[in-house]
Amino acid sequence: MNKRVAVIGIGSSKFGRRNDVGIRELTWEAVREALIDAGLTQKDIQLNVIGSTAYRGTEIYPAPPASEYSGLVGKSPIRVEAACATGSAAAFTAINAVASGMADIVLAIGFDKMTEVDTSASLAIGGRGGNYLWEFHMYGTTFPTYYALYATRHMAVYGTTEEDMALASVKAHKYASLNEKAHLRNKVTVEEVLKSRPISWPIKLLDSSPISDGSSAAIFASEDAVRKLHAEPVWVKGIGYGSDTSSIASRGEWTGLKAAKDAAAMAYSSSHVSPTDVEYATVHDCFTIAEIMAYEDLGFAEKGKGAKLLRDGQTEKDGKVAVNLFGGLKAKGHPLGATGLAMIYEVVKQLREEAGPVQHSFKNYIGLTHNVGGTGHYAYVTVLGR
Amino acid sequence: MEGIPLFLKYDVSIQGYERFWEGLKAGEVWTTKCKKCGTIYYPPQRDCPNCLSSDMEWIKLKENGKIMTFSIVKQKPQGFDQEDYVVGIVRNEDNVDLMCWLKGIPKVGKDVKLTTDGKRVIGVVV
Ligand SMILES: [Zn+2]
């Protein structure tokens, strides 16, 4: 990056089935919190980047209404989309606008209202998250099916079990119970996960993130702006990105996500950080197998040993690398467009030591977000530090 | 309150891919190979991004393969309100990986014979 970029404000709505708000009010919850957090007003924002997948809501062009409601008219010329990594795509665009010197203070907002349609429509939309004609049209793949194909292969090659995957769900729910903004705040047991309804075997209901509504926002600033505002910055130390084939069959390997591995390699080299330096991470656990693969793709565990890291408790609070202490996508919720920015929100809260009951203890203050779009079609890894 | 439903009807172009869809009706799986650089595409492509040629030939894929992975779809999406089905990925003797529905008891590594049900590729567990 040409210029250093800092995060100086963050906000996030409560995630969940939010029948109490429309997309505009939902967005405002995150924008308001981010503006107050940064001590700024809309006048200070030079560019607003909006991320939303939008297909499951009535507002399929949601950026203008959300922007208008939040007092950002004139600042919002772009909406970006990268499926479940949409929030990171918005952050990526905003960070680059600052890094290039084009703007000094840029807001990124991510949101989705997914519960306006029913589950069968939602599955049919998610099932198109690949290649419509050559997958969904002929085979009725659902979004869980794609990740299930990875889970089955990981189980066959590395001996990962359904019990191992259940542990990721138990961990997520345990931490979400401490997060008042989380969608699912109930605790679950391994037995409950194993006995839950199969959705696309081996993925069961309690291996899956819920269908959620939510919004998140972050304000990015240049070093000059940080100095002028006397802000307490968290710095973007590096970003990596990756992408992969639309057809899942064409990837040749189904035990890890190449897009995520590529993104991680780029993020580590651009930030001069290695996997063992990372003390806190948010990983894209849309399904429990995804958390196990993320450990491996990010280099926290050797290939095939992701489940062991989980079993050994190394990704718990105060473990070797704490992961998803806000409850993860699995239990905090996964409103697609919001997720990437909710990850930045979480890591910044942790690095500032504002995470309350789930505050991790840091030595070097290095955190990372890992956000996957589609079934590994897109990936972004962002390294943050104080 | 209830929003206004949005009905989307699609007209999907399959021009240039007739051989594939005709093949399905005959129990065969066809795909394209670039005549210039030899790259095999599955799903088939009319154009070769590898060498920029559009001079492609249709080849019939071999019917023996192995299950690489699979999933049993229990909760179905709109358009597939029917019995459970098994989505699999099979690697055939041409070293092509294809999505299919598996019939029989699936297991990773098991051999399958590729055929079709007229609408899609089917892998029958041997
Ligand atoms: Zn060619």
Domain unit count of chain B: 2
- Morphology call of chain B: globular
Q: Which blocks of ≥5 consecutive residues of chain B have pLDDT under 50? A: none
Mean pLDDT of chain B: 97
Kindly state the number of beta strands of chain B: 8
Distance between the termini of chain B: 53 Å
Q: What is the CATH topology of the largest domain in chain B?
A: OB fold (Dihydrolipoamide Acetyltransferase, E2P)
Oligomer designation: heterodimer
Beta-strand proportion of chain A: 15-25%
Domain Thiolase N-terminal (chain A): 10-224
Domain Thiolase C-terminal (chain A): 240-386
Protein name (chain A): Acetyl-CoA acetyltransferase
EC number (chain A): 2.3.1.9
What topology does this entry show?
The complex is a heterodimer of chains A (386) and B (126).
Chain A: E1 5-12, H1 23-38, E2 47-51, H2 63-69, E3 78-80, H3 86-99, E4 105-113, H4 119-126, H5 132-139, H6 143-158, H7 162-176, H8 190-195, E5 198-201, E6 203-204, E7 213-222, H9 223-229, E8 234-243, H10 258-271, E9 280-282, H11 288-297, H12 306-311, E10 322-323, H13 328-332, H14 336-351, E11 366-373, E12 378-385
Parallel strand pairs in A: 2-3, 2-4, 9-10, 9-11
Antiparallel strand pairs in A: 1-7, 1-8, 4-7, 5-6, 8-12, 11-12
Helix pairs in contact in A: 1-2, 3-14, 7-11
Chain B: H1 18-25, E1 30-34, E2 40-41, E3 56-60, E4 64-73, E5 85-92, E6 97-103, E7 111-116, E8 121-125
Parallel strand pairs in B: 6-8
Antiparallel strand pairs in B: 1-2, 1-3, 4-5, 4-7, 5-6, 7-8
The complex binds zinc ion.
Protein name (chain B): DNA-binding protein
InterPro entries (chain B): ChsH2_C, ChsH2_Znr, NA-bd_OB-fold, Thioester_dehydratase-like
Pfam family, one (chain B): zf-ChsH2
Jot down its keywords:
heterodimer, A: about 375 residues, alpha/beta, Peroxisomal Thiolase, Chain A, domain 1, 14 helices, B: OB fold (Dihydrolipoamide Acetyltransferase, E2P), 5-stranded mixed barrel, about 5% helix, globular, binds zinc ion
